[in-house]
Each structure stands twice: as structure tokens, then as C-alpha cells.
Amino acid sequence: MFFIPLELGTKFLIVYPAIRANCRWYGRAVTRFRTQDKAVWLTIDDGPHPEDTPQLLKLLKQHNAQATFFVIGRQVQKHPELAQAILCDGHTLANHSQTHPVLFFWSFLQSWLSREIDQGNQSLREATGEASRWFRAPAGMANLFLHFLLCDRNMKLIGWSARGFDGLFHNTEAMAGRIHKSIQPGAIILLHEGRRDRQGRPTNVILAETILGRLTTEGYAFIVPDEENFL
Q1: Burial code of 195-205, b = ≥16 C-beta within 10 A, e = fewer?
Q2: Does residue 45 sit in helix, strand or coil?
Q3: In whole angstroms, what is the distance from residue 43 CA to residue 153 CA?
Q4: Is 45 a catalytic residue?
Q5: pLDDT of the chain along its 231 residues, tens only?
Q6: Which residue out of 37, 45, 63, 100 is catalytically annotated?
Q7: Is there a catalytic annotation at residue 192?
Q8: Closest CA to 189 of 155, 152, 214
Q9: Active site residue: 63, 96, 100, 192, which one?
């Protein structure tokens, strides 16, 4: 009987930190940055998207905001011109895996994880001439192998501290409220591309416009922080 709780406890120690977003049990995940100013880091996942990305770039320009787009490699392969447009507008690109295998990424073996990271970087390199030193795991899930692989590649795992669950829900006001509750200087905001509500409206773009407008009014600047300030 002793071995049953021991086995369950061992499985918990293996599974929990892998499926818990931004968990630091296995290694570091950047979830904030150090700043003396009212500044936040806007990060946008799952693009580039042929409809959303141009609209997001327009919004960012209107609010004089910088952002980092954590892009999926196969999307970059489909829309290399959008990856280039992101860089041309003064924003940064980062690796969000090659295929975004959200359901099983946490349980991937070392070889599969390597393929997702390296092919994602290769897609970025082919489209823009440069890869990224930043990686965001699908749904923020990261097992022990991932931390070792990123360390070997001198890459940093980037998480978040403010999210509205815009990949799951459609109520933009409610999502904006969730994000706003977590805002303070040094926050990392998580948004997405490519979602639509039942009426076909681009909920992610609407949410981005709400967040940009509200925080700009409150005196926040949207910046991409230096790595030396990562927390």
C-alpha cells in the first residue's frame, strides 16, 4: 500500500509542472520584467494571420506601441510577407513552435520537442533572415526536456502575467477586465490572433484595441524589454 501513494506522488511531480502554465519547477519562465516606468510588454501568439496581423499592426502604430509576435512556424511559411511586415514596423518576432501541438506538447519526448523548436527557428530564418532567442510553449506547458533544450540553444522561455483567455472566450469586455486586473508596471500581456466569435467578428483584434486604448489612456507604454530586465 505504501507504493500506491508514492507512485501517485511521483506522477504528480512529473505531470503537474508540465501542464501548469508558466510553472518554474523545472526551470525559469520569464513572466515579468524590471522597470521603473509605467510600461508593459504586449505579446501576441499564433500568427501571422492574413486578416488579423495587418489590423494589429495598424492598431499598434496608432498607439505608438511595440509588441512581440510569438509566431507559429508553419504560419510563417504560409505568410512570410507578414513576418517581414512585423519586423519592418519595428516589432519583434519569437518562436511559438513549428506546428503548435497544444494537446500533447507537454508530454513530447526530447526529439519531438527539438523538432518543434528548431523547425520554428528555421521557418523564421528562411522568412526574415534571423531566428529568435525567445520561445513560448503552446499553452505555456513545459516539461523537463524543454528547459534543457532551450538552455542548449541559449534561448529563454517566455510566459506571461496578464491574460484574458481570448483563445477560449468571446466576451471582449470580460477578457479585457481579466487582463486589466493583472496590470502593473512590468507585466507581460498575452493576446492571440485568429479567433472569431459566432458572428465572425475578430475577437482578438477587438480585445487588442480595447487593451491598447485603455492602458494608453492610463499612461502605460508598450515596450519590448531588454533581456537583462527579465524576471
Answers
A1: beeeeeebbbb
A2: strand
A3: 22
A4: yes
A5: 444 454 444 444 556 666 677 878 778 999 999 999 999 999 999 999 999 999 999 999 999 999 999 999 999 999 999 999 999 999 999 999 999 997 778 777 899 999 999 999 999 999 999 999 999 999 888 888 999 999 999 999 999 999 999 877 789 999 999 999 999 999 999 999 999 988 889 999 999 999 999 999 999 999 999 999 999
A6: 45
A7: yes
A8: 214
A9: 192
